[in-house]
Amino acid sequence: MTQHCLQRPTGNSSRGCPSVPGSRSTPAFPSAPPRRESAGIGKTTLIQKATEALKSSGVPIDGFYTEEVREGGRRIGFDVVTLSGRRGTLSRLGSDSSTARREYRVGQYIVDLVSFEHLVLPVLRNVDLGSDTGKKVYVIDEIGKMELFSRSFIQAVRQTLTGSGTTILGTIPIPKGKPLGLVEEIRSRRDVMVFNVTKENRDNILQDIVTTVQNCRK
User: Fold this and answer.
1) Each residue's pLDDT tens digit, 127-175
2) Contact at 8 Å (CB) between 137 and 59?
3) Torsion angle of C-alpha atoms 162, 163, 168, 174, degrees rounded to 10
4) 206: closest CA among 56, 38, 9?
5) Which residues of 87-122 are buried (b: 16+ CB within 10 A; e: fewer)?
6) Per-residue pLDDT tens for 178-209?
7) Is the omega angle on the peptide bond into residue 142 within 30 degrees of 0, that is, cis?
């Protein structure tokens, strides 16, 4: 299962974009199990479909999503892909005997923090703070354990959530094991709506997410 969160701009009172105490979302954040365990749920595919639907309706949109990388039918890692078409490494399979001076690991994957920050931080730091801020949608897929090794990413996400009023369509993992600080902050925000995404509902929930995002911009 995955969760999508939707954060609405501060002060937005559109009926389709409520503040939901205790709900599991931020601007708009679909939520699912940790990335390594959620293959096949279709979280990223859902994000891509929602992005295309919003674009086709004239909604200005920016951000990034993560995508599996396979070789010979075997998953070897994940890439970050920006909506402007740039791509870079998020993680790759590593050796148990690796002796790198400093590694950021999630299970068998080694996170390439430099590559991730190089692509993602400029996107988040370019969030428009002008009068039309609330009309633009930013995609953040995802706010998970791999991404949260980056202190700069954590800071940029917090600034985006608290300072811009921008509508955000993002993804967060469903809690498992030790809570992730930023993820729990997002869950507890009153201006965030969370959608639980499963294999069973992923095809039917798309329009709900798109409609919610559109209402949050009004």
Assistant:
1) 755 445 557 899 999 999 999 999 999 999 998 887 656 789 999 888 7
2) yes
3) -20
4) 56
5) ebbbbeebeeeeeeeeebebeebbbbbebbbebbee
6) 889 999 999 888 888 888 888 888 888 999 99
7) yes
